[in-house]
């Protein structure tokens, strides 16, 4: 064990307390082993020797030259000093600059006439090339060329560093511990290492930190990736093996039971993908070992709204087309949740629900609505079911839509005026600031401000309607004011009906529930469902058990497909199913959602319950004693086939009659301990289904969910023309950008139209000056193309439109569109573009709102590196909507080797949602991807790139599976056991905790 001790030695013993403290606090490095596994993130090459006349800007160079002169200058009124050294090599001159305390040694060394090698990055100051603080090595007059070459071509490791500890200081610390690499325990079995031609671990550690050649780095990386992949996959393989040895009760499908009854009343047909995945699940359930399956993309499959439908967020409504994973949206109960999946559905037939107050909502036929009728109470129905069963026998509308809970909003804009007084001013005919009826900042305001604003409007221009005066009518309101009155009323849980007035304008009848009173009396009925036509649509999944959000005109929509069928299949076979939720509120909402979808099938054994039904019970920690006692009794007797609950389900007191299936939402991962505790509730271990709505790349699934089999429900866009995407490197190859504008002209000549998208508007919203703009210190100047590109303000619509109109697109009909245009102007531009009266629309991302022009075939996105992956994907979806193929050109000034360009190239390469999720993940650190799922893992992956190293992960998985099958206890691999215990929590050596 002495060998392990050498790597476990605290760094303070070797490096001293101060350095060790910085490494521990800022980089999490505490032992010799930690520092040895803190690998360089890249290597700086001093580069080939360069003539001074050929120096390239912004690149690391190495030069051999003679000092022509050196002088010390003062600045900042004598408080600062700098050393300027001029070099010459016969071909040109170069200036070196050193500042502050760093001038003393070079001032002594670099005397006129001395010859030396210098390495650094070339920058420009005062229109002269310079190297700031270069490394240098003095040469003897008769220095041989070998020494020069050795210095010039050396690979310098650049470590992940922090402000308190620069990379070169970390390199010195690594030098101090590098001899301990000899004591590293090699976890790979010798046969595997030799069979895969991998170098020994000790050699890999030496080569990764101090490579002699690029081949050394490649050998070391290959070996260290295998260590990480193999140890992780062995841990997962042991878990899979342990599970496969456990017995489970087979749960075979039973015809004529609750599942068949449930399927018979489903208001929509299961898609081919849903049927296939259900078959996989039921096949697993029928085996004698526990199912462990991950179901991807289950939520949100198939229910969609047009891209210009609106979704309520805490800052007001945003278009469906702008939704992206991570967008915060408002749920009907008034809380907020994140969008955790976006699923483009291509073009579909779209229908319009017309509600009793004149408001309308558009969606596809599969869309789910929470509706009520006098006869049935609350149900969840599709648009198709509503169409087929719209009216009662007496001809009156049957269904009403659930109201949304009023919520506080804040669009971030200033609200200098009292809301009530502003309402009175506007209601009396005065103009509001910003040239519209009510400024957005007041519309998207907290509930109390919206209530005060509406009161002011109605007090100034409204009159009571009816004897009780509960409703008020505002006569002859101009169109913008009528729209705002309706908006405010609906946002407060009320209703608003607008009718044309005799003398022009609109009579708006408004009714709003009193503060704190439920709005059930204000439910709107569904008057009609009208056909709109084919339009591009998408659906979103909301990370909330209700999976509901608030759409146009504050209408609640339900967007879920609960994984109930597997649970009901288990109930048919005599077992019970449990669904786990992390909080009581979410458990209650899950319970409500499930009972709604099941109807009387959830009332087994109760008066009015269906014959094949079962009980669906809720179990949480704060239930009253009587209700809790009844729920526990229903579980232990088997009366309840389905239970939905929190961690309370895991308590010792909870006993099941026969627990057959546990369903876990991956948003709320439960750890191995919780799974084990639930296992003990069954006579034999239950089957397990883990669900996620987000597409997970195969590599991540293999690594994070390696102990689960994977099923995928993918809904690829249908009915769309292909879209070709290309990156246009505007700075490196200006002629590519010129060709892009030629392509636009060609498309217009062929009768098509184009979009040009810019990140900024460009009138009065100037970007702040880059930091360091006025600094005299050259170190503060942008020093690389990346810096320069990032410090430049983003390209603006107004500037680009003018340049295009006078230059490459002269003669074409070019117009601009952005968010700060007056609504009428915006509508006019959109109408003209849709009608084909304009050739090119230069716009911000506002084109995601209400613009659907099948004739538009080309899009040029300027400064594409300033947009996120999902936003680029959404923007690109604006073209290729008609019969002609689409073209998307991603213009960037970033250098070819930059991460931003790599991201754009990846976006250009695919239209696939899973692939784009992979690209999105690539932008995060690998440790974040894994650490989120493996709270038991002490050290995140450092060398293995989950996204890029699929071949290594796949091969490691195969090797690990074979090894564990032959030697489950790893008795023949003591070093591997040691590595496992270092990777995982001691008490859970063979388990990964998905906590």
Automatic annotation (TrEMBL):
State the Gene Ontology terms under molecular function: ATP binding; DNA binding; DNA helicase activity; hydrolase activity
Q: Which Pfam families does the record associate with it?
A: DEAD, Helicase_C, RecG_dom3_C, RecG_wedge
Q: Which residues form the Helicase ATP-binding domain?
A: 540-713
Write out the transmembrane intervals. none
Q: Which UniProt keywords apply?
A: ATP-binding, DNA damage, DNA repair, DNA-binding, Helicase, Hydrolase, Nucleotide-binding
Q: Name one GO biological process term.
A: DNA repair
Query: Region annotation Disordered: residue ranges?
Result: 761-792
Domain named Helicase C-terminal: which ranges? 736-922
What this protein is called in its record is Probable DNA 3'-5' helicase RecG
Q: Which organism is it from?
A: Streptomyces noursei (Streptomyces albulus)
């Amino acid at each position: 064990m002495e060998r392990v001790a050498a790597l476990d030695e605290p760094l303070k013993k070797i490096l001293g307390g101060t350095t060790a403290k910085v490494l521990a606090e800022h980089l999490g490095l505490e032992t010799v082993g930690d520092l040895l596994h803190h690998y360089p993130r890249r290597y700086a090459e001093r580069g080939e020797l360069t003539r001074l006349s050929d120096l390239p800007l912004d690149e690391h160079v190495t030069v051999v030259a003679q000092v022509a002169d050196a002088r010390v200058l003062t600045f900042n009124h004598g408080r600062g000093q700098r050393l300027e050294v001029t070099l010459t090599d016969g071909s040109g001159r170069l200036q070196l600059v050193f500042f502050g305390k760093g001038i003393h040694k070079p001032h002594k060394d670099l005397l006129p006439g001395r010859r030396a090698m210098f390495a650094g990055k070339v920058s420009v100051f005062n229109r002269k090339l310079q190297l700031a603080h270069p490394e240098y090595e003095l040469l003897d007059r008769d220095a041989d060329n070998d020494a020069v070459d050795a210095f010039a071509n050396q690979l310098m490791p650049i470590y992940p560093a922090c402000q308190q500890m620069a990379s070169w200081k970390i390199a010195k610390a690594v030098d101090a511990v590098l001899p301990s690499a000899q004591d590293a325990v090699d976890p790979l079995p010798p046969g595997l290492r030799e069979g895969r031609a991998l170098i020994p671990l000790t050699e890999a550690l030496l080569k990764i930190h101090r490579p002699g050649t690029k081949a050394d780095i490649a050998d070391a990386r290959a070996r260290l990736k295998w260590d990480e992949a193999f140890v992780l996959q062995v841990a997962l393989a042991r878990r899979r093996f342990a599970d496969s040895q456990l017995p489970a009760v087979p749960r075979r499908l039973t015809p004529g039971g609750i599942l068949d009854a449930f399927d018979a009343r489903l208001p929509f047909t299961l898609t081919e993908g849903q049927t296939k995945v259900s078959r996989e699940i039921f096949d697993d359930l029928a085996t004698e070992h526990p199912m462990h399956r991950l179901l991807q993309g289950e939520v949100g499959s198939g229910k969609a709204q047009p891209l210009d439908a609106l979704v309520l967020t805490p800052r007001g409504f945003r278009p469906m087309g702008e939704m992206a994973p991570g967008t915060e949206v408002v749920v009907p109960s008034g809380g907020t949740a994140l969008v955790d999946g976006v699923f483009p559905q291509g073009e579909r037939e779209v229908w319009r629900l017309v509600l009793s107050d004149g408001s309308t909502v558009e969606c596809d036929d599969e869309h789910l609505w929470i509706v009520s009728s006098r006869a049935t109470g609350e149900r969840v129905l599709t648009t198709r079911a509503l169409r087929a069963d719209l009216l009662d026998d007496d001809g009156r509308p049957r269904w009403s839509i659930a109201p949304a809970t009023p919520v506080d909003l804040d669009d971030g804009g200033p609200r200098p005026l009292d809301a009530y007084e502003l309402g009175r001013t506007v209601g009396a005919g005065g103009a509001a600031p910003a040239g519209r009826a009510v400024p957005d900042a007041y519309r998207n305001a907290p509930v109390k401000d919206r209530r005060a604003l509406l009161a002011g409007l109605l007090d100034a221009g409204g009159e009571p309607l009816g004897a009780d005066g509960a409703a008020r009518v505002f006569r002859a309101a101009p169109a913008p004011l009528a729209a705002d009155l309706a908006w405010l009323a609906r946002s407060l849980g009320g209703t608003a009906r607008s009718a044309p007035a005799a003398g022009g304008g609109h009579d708006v009848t408004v009714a709003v529930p009193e503060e704190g009173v439920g709005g059930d009396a204000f439910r709107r009925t569904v008057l009609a469902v009208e056909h709109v036509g084919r339009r591009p649509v998408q659906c979103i999944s909301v990370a909330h058990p209700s999976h509901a959000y608030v759409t146009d005109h504050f209408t609640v929509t339900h967007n879920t497909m609960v994984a109930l069928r597997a649970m009901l299949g288990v109930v048919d076979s005599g077992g019970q199913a449990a669904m786990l939720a992390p909080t009581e509120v979410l458990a209650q909402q899950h319970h409500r959602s499930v009972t709604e979808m099941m109807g009387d099938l959830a009332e087994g054994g109760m008066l009015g319950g269906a014959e094949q039904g079962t009980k669906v019970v809720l179990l949480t920690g704060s239930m009253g004693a009587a209700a809790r006692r009844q729920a526990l009794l229903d579980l232990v007797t088997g009366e309840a086939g389905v239970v939905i609950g929190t961690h309370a389900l895991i308590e010792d007191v909870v006993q099941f009659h026969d627990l057959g299936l546990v369903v876990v939402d991956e948003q709320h991962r439960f750890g191995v301990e919780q799974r084990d505790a639930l296992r003990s509730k069954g006579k034999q271990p239950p089957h397990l289904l883990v669900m996620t709505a987000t597409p997970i790349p195969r590599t991540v699934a293999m690594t994070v969910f390696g102990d689960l089999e994977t099923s995928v429900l993918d809904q690829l866009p249908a009915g769309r023309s292909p879209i070709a995407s290309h990156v246009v490197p505007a700075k490196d190859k200006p002629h590519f950008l010129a060709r892009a504008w030629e392509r636009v002209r060609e498309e217009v000549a062929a009768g098509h139209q184009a979009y040009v998208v810019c990140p900024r508007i460009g009138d009065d919203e100037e970007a702040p000056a880059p930091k360091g703009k006025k600094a005299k210190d050259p170190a503060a100047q942008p020093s690389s193309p990346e810096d320069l590109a990032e410090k430049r303000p983003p390209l603006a619509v107004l500037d680009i439109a003018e340049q295009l109109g006078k230059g490459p697109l002269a003669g074409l009909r070019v117009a601009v569109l952005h968010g700060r245009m007056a609504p009428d102007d915006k509508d006019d531009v959109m109408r003209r573009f849709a009608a084909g009266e304009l050739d090119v629309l230069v716009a911000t991302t506002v084109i995601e709102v209400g613009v659907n022009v099948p004739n538009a075939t080309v899009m040029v996105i300027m400064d594409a590196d300033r947009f996120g992956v999902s936003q680029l994907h959404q923007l690109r979806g604006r073209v290729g909507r008609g019969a002609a193929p689409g073209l998307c050109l991603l213009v960037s000034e970033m250098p070819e080797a930059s991460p931003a360009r790599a991201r754009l190239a990846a976006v250009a390469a695919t239209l696939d949602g899973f692939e784009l999720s992979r690209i999105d993940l690539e932008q995060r650190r690998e440790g974040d991807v894994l650490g989120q799922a493996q709270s038991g893992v002490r050290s995140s992956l450092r060398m293995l790139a989950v996204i890029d190293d699929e071949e290594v992960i796949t091969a490691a998985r195969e090797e690990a599976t074979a090894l564990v099958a032959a030697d489950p206890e790893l008795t023949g691999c003591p070093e591997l056991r040691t590595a496992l215990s270092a990777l995982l929590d001691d008490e859970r050596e063979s388990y990964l905790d998905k906590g």
